[in-house]
Amino acid sequence: MIFGSGIDIVHIKKLKKTTEKWGERFSHRIFTSRELNYCYQKKSPFQHLAARFAAKEAFLKALEGEKNKELKWKEIEIDNKESGQPFYRLRGFGKSLMNKEGIKPFLTISHSKDYAIAHCILVK
Q1: pLDDT tens sequence across 100-123
Q2: 93-97 — which CB contacts under 8 Å span 24+ positions?
Q3: 57 annotated among ligand-binding-site residues
Q4: Which of 44, 55, 89, 102 has its CA 20 to 30 A from that of 14?
Q5: 8: annotated binding-site residue?
């Protein structure tokens, strides 16, 4: 049964400007070191950062109202399987909520030159 669904789109240039303006203060608040390492190894790191940002937003939108207010950005980590398929690696409140409610998150992300998009489905 679908518990929730969320989608988000990010303008890559806007994320790049925000990251350049606020530097590590922004990026280390939003992304884990694993995510930053992964993205900055890519030819176009901001496409990958934007996709991860969109994935985190999509996850928060898929949760019911008040529950997402207790989550911290870095408790929602986006990782990739060997096949390249993205998945959520949750920590803290997010992980305990998923376990308590019996929810499994599914993720798909994509990006082009200008935009990154992510869709999250929570299945119970």
Answers
A1: 989 999 999 999 999 999 999 999
A2: 94/59, 97/63, 97/67
A3: yes
A4: 89
A5: yes
